[in-house]
Fold each of these.
Amino acid sequence: MKKYSVVIYSFLALSLLACEDKLDQFPLSDASAANFYRNAADFEQAVNGVYGQLRPVPERYYDLSETRSDNVYGSSTTGVRPWDPVNDFVNTLENNELIAEAWNNNFNGIMRANTVLDRLDPGLVPEEAIRNRFEGETRFLRAFYYFDLVRWFGRVPLYDRVVTPTEALEIPRSSVQEVYDLILSDLNRAIELLPPTYNAANKGRVTSWAAKALLARVHLTRSGHTYGIDGPGVAANEYSQALTLLNDVIDNGPFSWVNSYASIFSYNNENNPDIVFDVQFQSGQIGIGTTLPGYMGTPAYFNTLSGNIALPQSSVEMREVSKNLINSYEANDARLAVTVQRSFTDPNGFVETRGFYRKFLDETATILDRFDWPINFPLIRLTDVMMMKAEAILQGASGGSQQEVDNIVNMVRTRAGLTPLANVTLDVLLDERRREFAGEGLRWHDLVRTGKVKEVMDAWLPTEDELNRMQESMNINFVIYPIPFTQLTVKEGLYQQNPGY
């Protein structure tokens, strides 16, 4: 169990700093901030509040990346679940609650970060090392939230400081390049300021290594295809910059290869050497765990269990892991059983043959309710860093070799119990990443970044759509999501909707 709770829920004490969802309520009043920030302890609590906006990330990645991709067939029996239109590629998503959540919670995190950065001062935090750490953590998190936004929405409004309500109503969406400029600046500064490691009491805080790994991912994403839209790819050709950072993390970081795939996700092995950065969750009190295992599961399965899990564990129906994904696993691939619950028999004797994600599920854990699963969610793993290195090399980064690519992929395959490959291509690498990171929210971004998304989705849609609800082919505008309708109506003409919606 973690000694440090990153306390993604101790941010509840920061309720006086919380903003509402609407743009015209975005800023924090100067009086509230001035009264709160008095010493280093107050700033630490405030920084924990910035971490707090990571809480919805696991479910968001499941909803907007896994369900959008060829990993999950998410059409519900009624067709009215909020994820149905995400799965089905409809063009009427601007009122969808999942889209609004991605916008609102990321901007809440940015608001909290700006408030900390605006107030951080040597007079209040005189110890330079502590002050640098607070700034580094906050800049990393602001960059993370903006990177999340630019990948979902493309152009977004840019707030690099606390603004007044009047100012906010005059700030339009910035270009993707301008958003990236802030992300790059924040991550480079975070690398300078953050420590490489922490003591046990602070385990889980972001390190300089995590900042380097995220910066490498930004370089890869910026280098991706543009699709002719204002999306996350700007054809920047920064593969060599990414490779330099990835080599540094691999060669010099405090991470190491974990030989057992299952142990990476074990409740008894959190913060293991494969984890570069994750969302920290705990148990023992309702509200400090994650909902993800129950959210990915199905009530029928949890009703078959007995022991320490409070029931019911899920209030929503199962989203089926796609048959295409399950069939992509080779025989004896150890990752399949860890990742997917392929079938079960419910209490009425019905045999369910559709699969659901179980990667973060442990039936032996003591669970208070469906909001309290005590398992961290990985945002960056060493395995991901290594496979991003392989991608950078295959995309033309200088200083890499085909042998390095093959070695990386074969380390992953050997751990999964599979035979090695030679002359690995980008398509083979993407297939291996799909199986390795299934359920971790990377698939959609991988397809978009590498220019494969329309090709893959157009081939997958007609074969998997058993209920005949999805579009026959993917509109290229759907690489990104629409701006939430509530934001379009804050001030007429301030934002224009993304094309295709």
Amino acid sequence: MAQARLLADLRACVGPEHVLTGDDAVPYLTDWRKTVTGRAVAVVRPANRDEVAQVVRLCAAAGAPVVPQGGNTGQVAAATPDASASAVVLSLLRLNRVRAIDPDNDTVTVEAGCVLQTVQEAAREAGRLFPLSLGAEGSCTIGGNLATNAGGTQVLRYGNARELALGLEVVTPEGEIWDGLRGLRKDNTGYDLRDLYIGSEGTLGVITAAVLKLFPLPRAQRTALIATPGLSQALLLLQRARAGFGAELTAFEVMATPCLRDVTRAFAQQRLPFTEIDDDMWCVLLEVSDNEGEQHAQDRLEVVLSGALEAGEVSDVVVSVSESQSAAFWHLRESITLALAQADVCVKHDISLPASKIPDFVRETDRALATAFPGVRMRVFGHLGDGNLHYNLLPPRGASKADIQRLVHDRVHAAGGSISAEQGIGQHRVEDLERYKSDVELALMRRIKTALDPRGVMNPGKVLPMESKGDCP
């Protein structure tokens, strides 16, 4: 009876066609990796912030948890309901307007359901750059990017999503609206609520809009695909590139050769441009954004890379001569995840370490895994420039995924790293968070959750484990 009443109220709020149940709701109930399928009272699709606030108030009054969802492209099932069928999935895809662009202030104000690629294109039309870039940019949304503090390929130069946001609009668990859409780069008036909501994975409130930073469009970009003898040499090349390019080094990706061989096997139209490369080598995808022009960018690349060749840090290099060739290099990098998805089982880790420790960590952890799980095959790639590795592996038949992840995460923790660099905690890493965070950190996080969401209605079971006190009925 209570659910029937809630459904009637929700339909009156957003319109019957935007309250999905039964088969219509199914696409929203499974995470992108298809590891978790939940159940829900309904999937509700409000059109604006006021409807979001009203939906949240209705759910709070009915004791129904709220699971905010953007493009549903996450890796840790943070936007997927549990199996209790007690939650309402709040889809923000209809909040998709670019509200305003201020070129003089270098900002754009967008709603949470805007697809990342749409924001990039709107910025470019205004002669500006919005630099957040990741493989799912054609379907992920700004709200999800902010809720997970997304990283991507240009963190080295521009930072994570948190560094790209100036202001937020948020609906609280009580259904109130906090309008913090201020395009200010300096504002020391009290606690920074913006940074608290960013990265909270929908557990503290619902982000409905944001003011984002824009940057000048570079006059030239050059991309190089580079073969290096090993990961240690790739790290030396990173140091050389930082010294040679400074802030104009916008991306520095590393890929173990077996990852790229997987791509070329899975997608026949893709090719590696190198004539000789073996499985012990690593490839680097380096991008430079130059503010002077094409020739200046080309000259600087030649200086830096010729020095690396002479020093033995580089075995082979191909520099893009066109936008299409640059896109092909990036397509190789972005296809790794798709190629790995074709494996029967892939055990994934999204870790971060000081860049200086990464070569030793990879070498020693590879060895430990090979000893503990004979036949394991490593598939490692990531953003060496900011210390983030997607430390993935294809396990032998019968190996325990939990045991593998425990070994890797224990070694990450011992090295002073993080078990989640850019993908978040969601449902998948709640137990890991409890294992590796200190008691003080966990207690502070729980106090924040209790203070902002005392009834536990916002995305319960994500980030922090559900507890009996304060949980939704």
